[in-house]
Amino acid sequence: MHREWVESLPDFVLDDGTVFDKEKIFPYAYRHSFAQRHADAGVPIDVLAELMDHDNYQTTKTYFRVKEVRLREAVERVTNMQFDRHGTRIWGAITTVLDAERTRRAVGAVVVPFGTCSEPSNVAAGGGACPLRFRCVGCDHFSTDVSYLPDLRSYLDDLLRQRERLRSMSEAEDWARAEAMPSEAEITRIRRLIQRVTEDVETLTEAERAEINRAAQVVRQTRQNFLGMPRIRQPLPDLRPERPA
């Protein structure tokens, strides 16, 4: 019955002028179409996994892929709103490529919490050898963009909560509390960065802001999908200095 119905359908002409092979239309393919349409609409991967009754995100990711053209357009828009650690907007062309279905921002940079890093030793290690232990906002090799704004705000909230929690821990010794305490300098720097990025976005027209918001959503969804990140806040990085053995 299903095959007869498929064969009765008119030909589907693709963008390149070729006719879609109807042999590729079968009941199980509808699940892939369902996943692809929801992913294109920006549905978070954890929600999509629940809709498809999957136990883990890795299974869900096999059912769809972000369309390259759409992703490239989004990345180009977002990288035009890129900022250094001081919140100064970075102008100029930025080369973007797709590598193993991950968004790569600039050749010679790696993704780090809340932005990208161009520090040579960290780049060579794929982002796992930061000399500053991910105190990114204190390093000139760090840059960010509007797609990371929600992450920066969440991180600031986490730092403030951690500071208040540590201040109320009377059972902890002073040295332990001081070592674990987020620095006021980092809190101030992140606040300033958020303010600068927000102010710059507010100078755009309503239409431009809408485009940037849509592009940021696509890029964030891509990071979430292909890096396997559910919609939860990232854990605070370990900022304690290494001690000699």
TrEMBL record:
Q: Where is the Tyr recombinase domain?
A: 23-67
Q: Which GO terms describe its biological process?
A: DNA integration; DNA recombination
Key word Membrane present in the record?
no
SUPFAM superfamilies from the UniProt entry: DNA breaking-rejoining enzymes (SSF56349)
Swiss-Prot/TrEMBL keywords: DNA recombination
A Gene Ontology MF term for this entry?
DNA binding
Question: Pfam families given for it?
Answer: Phage_integrase
Ranges in coiled-coil conformation? none
InterPro entries associated with the record: DNA_brk_join_enz (IPR011010), Integrase-like_cat_sf (IPR013762), Integrase_catalytic (IPR002104)
Q: What is this protein called?
A: Transposase
Originating species:
Streptomyces diastatochromogenes
